[in-house]
Design the sequence.
């Protein structure tokens, strides 16, 4: 089984106890990584990540918690690359692993998949893509290459190539790390696969990241320039998703994308619009 690392604040004893019980009960060996407290980071450490205002949420500054979260991911990825393992699973302490998750922690199984950078074990039920390409089937699960992705870094497997790509492409930090890697297609060409149905769920726990959505609603404090900048960002995000998919999987792959069960005609129109926007850019 590949290494499993659970990122958790050292002071989050209750959350750690639940994660310990879940993984130990499934026979999944793991280690905790003491998450980096954003407020305790030095000015030099923060400058190395180069956080920028998040245009996708009305140019709000990233919170200390979001900066610490990204720094924690980067630290685990660097440690992984210092070793010799081919894959690593990085999870958060609100992740609840199902018994089937162990199958996707088998290095032989992972090596049999199309070469990937990240294999997501959790889905975003609110914003999951409706357009994807199935690249492998395994019992009751399918491995998808989605056109667009939802949020969440609750649990995913990184290859060595993926770890290098994230470390190289996520600085400057222009968004919370889950948005940057997935929803915003902030790392062009990142080869992301996703297990469906998911083998990891998220526990309904209060976030340990400080108030990350405090600036996430339009209002009088947002001037027309900031609002316009966000609208352009949202348009560009669609274009980037298609461009990233083409770079990751090649032009032929996008022709094999199909609506995911439960989607509708609007999903297909969304793809056509995104491709047209990219061609006209």
Sequence:
């Amino acid at each position: 089984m590949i290494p499993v690392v659970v990122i958790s604040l050292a002071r989050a004893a209750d959350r750690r106890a639940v994660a310990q019980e879940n993984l130990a009960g499934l026979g999944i060996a793991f280690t905790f990584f003491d998450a980096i407290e954003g407020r305790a980071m030095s000015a030099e450490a923060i400058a190395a990540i180069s956080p920028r205002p998040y245009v996708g949420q009305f140019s709000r500054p990233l919170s200390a918690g979001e900066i610490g979260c990204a720094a924690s991911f980067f630290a685990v990825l660097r440690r992984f690359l210092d070793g010799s393992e081919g894959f690593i699973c990085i999870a958060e302490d609100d992740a609840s692993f199902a018994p089937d998750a162990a199958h996707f922690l088998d290095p032989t199984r992972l090596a049999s998949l199309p070469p990937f950078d990240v294999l997501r074990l959790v889905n975003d039920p609110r914003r999951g893509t409706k357009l994807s390409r199935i690249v492998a089937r395994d019992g009751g699960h399918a491995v998808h290459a989605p056109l667009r992705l939802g949020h969440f870094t609750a649990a995913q497997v990184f290859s060595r190539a993926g770890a290098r790509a994230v470390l190289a492409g996520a600085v400057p930090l222009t968004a919370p790390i889950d948005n940057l890697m997935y929803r915003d297609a902030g790392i062009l060409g990142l080869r992301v696969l996703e297990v469906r149905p998911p083998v990891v769920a998220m526990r309904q726990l209060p976030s340990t990241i400080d108030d990350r959505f405090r600036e996430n609603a339009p209002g009088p404090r947002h001037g027309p320039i900031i609002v316009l900048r966000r609208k352009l960002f949202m348009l560009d995000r669609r274009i980037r998703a298609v461009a990233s998919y083409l770079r990751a999987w090649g032009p032929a792959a996008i022709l094999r994308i199909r609506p995911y069960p439960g989607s509708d005609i609007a999903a297909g129109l969304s793809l056509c619009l995104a491709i047209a926007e990219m061609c006209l850019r």
The two ends are 45 Å apart (CA to CA). The chain has a mean pLDDT of 89. The chain has one domain: 4-207+214-280. The first strand starts at residue 4 and ends at 8.
